[in-house]
Amino acid sequence: MVQVAARRFASVDALRGLTVAAMLLVNDPGDWAHVFAPLLHSEWAGCTPTDLVFPFFLFIVGVSIALGVVPRIEAGADPAPVRRALWVRALRIIGIGLAINLLGWWLLDKPHFRPWGVLQRIGLCFLVVGYIATRPAPRVQGTLIAVLLLGYWALLGFGGGFEPWSNLASRVDTALLGPLVYEFDPASGRGHDPEGLLSTLPAIATTLLGLHAGGWLRRGRVHRLLPGALGCLLVGWLWSAALPWNKNLWTPSFVLWTAGWAMALLWLFHQLVDRWHWPAIGRSLGINAITVYAGSAVMFLLLYALGAWEAIYRIGYTSWMTPLFGPYVPSLAFGLVFTAIWWAIAKWMEKRGIVIKV
To answer: How far is CA 310 from CA 54, 114, 180, 307, in A?
Structure first.
């Protein structure tokens, strides 16, 4: 078997790490009733800064596949062991996501166990795009992106439109899992899951766009990143007039809009970190991204189940900050401190050479 060391770009690690930091910040406010608007997801149509976070991570998954998987195949490695490794890693990521949801169901006494989730979607996108990457064919990949986006648009359009609850993606998830989806209305029998099965199809397109951008980065064609970003942004913006940005449905216009910003940031980080040698801020989080994300989720569940989360927030933040600054500042401060704690943990791991590969 041909062994090829994956080329590591500090810029990619830094961008991945800052994306994880943003995930922690938006997922862990002190009080969900008092969160600044940019740190909330759009209720339905639209795109807030928070809506960019998950697509950025999937885009970077695609970039990482371009840097890690494709070079081995191009060097003549047998695809079979590579694909087995993809299966193993994908199943681990999915398994961690299921375990976190199971822990939350048990500790928080939730009414049901939810099979879908963020890590589950990451694992599926990683597996599918990783398989595609074992057959390097940029033109085929570009065609597949178009088929996924146009096909998904057609499915939603002919499947009843884009309204909450009644759209095809929500109906498919409800038919498959019933009350096990993220939101379920027992009275009407309708449900919705923002990380459901059908909407994973355009999420795969997001990851494929990252694979394409990562190929440009690896081959030294960085000059294509910025025009590619501008093209995605323009088409995503124009398309939004007919098909609004919508993270819940992961609409095709949302795919292109968010991928455009991710591609632009990849270009910027490459210039700043790889070429101009600025500090790779966030790298420590980036090299242990899944570990930090999963560890922070478990910490939240344990603290919340023990009642410590609310006690820490009340005593350490709201008791003195709310009279001075109002209720929104302490909620933000709590999220920033929680993120900083995990950043410090990741920094400690990096200094000791601890990299947990899922």
So the answer is: 27, 24, 27, 6
Q: What is the pLDDT at residue 139?
A: 81
Count CA atoms closer than 13 A to 73's CA, side-chain side.
Answer: 18
- Residues 69/253/148/155 CA torsion (nearest 10 deg): 150
pLDDT at 6: 61
92 domain residue, yes or no = yes
- Round to whole Å and give the CA distance between 57 and 286: 10
Q: Is the pLDDT of residue 3 over 90?
A: no
Domain that holds residue 100: 10-351
Count how many residues are written for the chain: 358
Mean pLDDT of 138-154: 93
- 276 is a domain residue: yes
Q: In the structure encoding, which two tokens stand for residue 228, read together?
A: 């590619």
Decide: residue 109, CB within 10 A, 0-12 exposed, 13-18 middle, 19+ buried. Answer: exposed
Q: Are 290 and 358 a contacting pair, CB within 8 Å?
A: yes
pTM of the model: 0.96
Work out how many domains the chain is built from and give that number. Answer: 1
Q: Enter the tokens of residue 287.
A: 């090299």
DSSP states along 87-149:
HHHHHHHHHHHHHHHHHHHHHTT-SS-----HHHHHHHHHHHHHHHHTS--HHHHHHHHHHHH
| pLDDT, tens only, 30-69 | 999 999 999 999 999 999 999 999 999 999 999 999 999 9
Residue 202 lies in a domain: yes
> Pairing mode, if any, of strands 183-185 and 190-192?
antiparallel
**Which has more pLDDT, 161 or 11?**
11
Q: Does residue 357 fall inside a structural domain? A: no
Q: Could you tell me which residues come within 8 angstroms of residue 20 by beta carbon, excluding any fewer than 6 positions away?
A: 57, 282, 285, 286, 289, 292, 293
Q: Taking all residues of the chain, what is their mean pLDDT, rounded to a whole number?
A: 95
